[in-house]
Amino acid sequence: MKTHEQVRIFPNFVTIPAESHLIPTDLTSTLPIHGDTGRKICNNMPSISLRPTNWIREDVIFFSQHGPFPAYLKRFHLSDSDYCNCGGIGTALHYATECIYTVSWHMRRPAPNFEQEWLKRVAKNLVSRQKIHEIIKFISENRHLFRPP
Question: Which domain of life, per UniProt (predicted)?
Answer without folding.
Answer: Eukaryota
